[in-house]
Amino acid sequence: MPAQTVDLLKNELPLEQESVVLAEDVVNGLVLVDIINGFCSVGAGNLAPREPNRQITGMINESARLARLFCDKKLPVLAFLDSHQPNKPEEPYPPHCIAGTEESKLVPALQWIENEPNVTVRRKDCFDGYLGSVEADGSNVFVDWVKNNQIKTILVVGICTDICVLDFVCSTLSARNRGFLTPMENVIVYSRGCATFDVPLHVARNTKGALAHPQELMHHVGLYMAKERGAVIANEVSLATPKKP
């Protein structure tokens, strides 16, 4: 999609972003959405990028930076990993991120977090991590994570901005509004810590069943819709520096 067209659409859908400093006097939690090989590592699978992608690389770098900051401070981190059974397709997409394969593993830059005591890993088999956290007994791993850690604010990063990130954010905000996630109040989506995929129109026209998915535009739309639902959209995120005694 021509840059002029993207700029025109962005002008019609202006998105105000904020510089956010996470307060130190409340519990902040970090949610990593599907930052796995099958969506991020070149050539790793049906839904992986075919060549290096600047937006995805930037998302990985920012997510790894924040994960390190949260782990250094022993703050709660939850990582969703897309993980499907071979006999349960996720329409309309081709088979991807099959459980137990390299596709369903964290990208190399984040694999270290699985050994951190403050990190919870949740493998899910649907777009929406909130629904993907439901257990057979009706409990919810994500809800329990929020409540057990008394999380006030969650910071969300990952891929894809307009699909799994957006679905999770929308469900989480609805649950918050219904009072299911007390004491959680705030959902922040970090734009530079999110990314989506790119399918140009000319590629979609020559691929059976494919839909055009211009990366920069759909990233913007995903963030815009998250803000419409009540999320804070941040273009800068940092943790507050502890006050000197």
From TrEMBL:
Isochorismatase-like domain: residues covered: 30-204
Any one GO biological process: pyridine nucleotide salvage
GO molecular function terms attached to this record: nicotinamidase activity
Pfam families in alphabetical order: Isochorismatase
Family note: Belongs to the isochorismatase family.
Protein name (record): Isochorismatase-like domain-containing protein
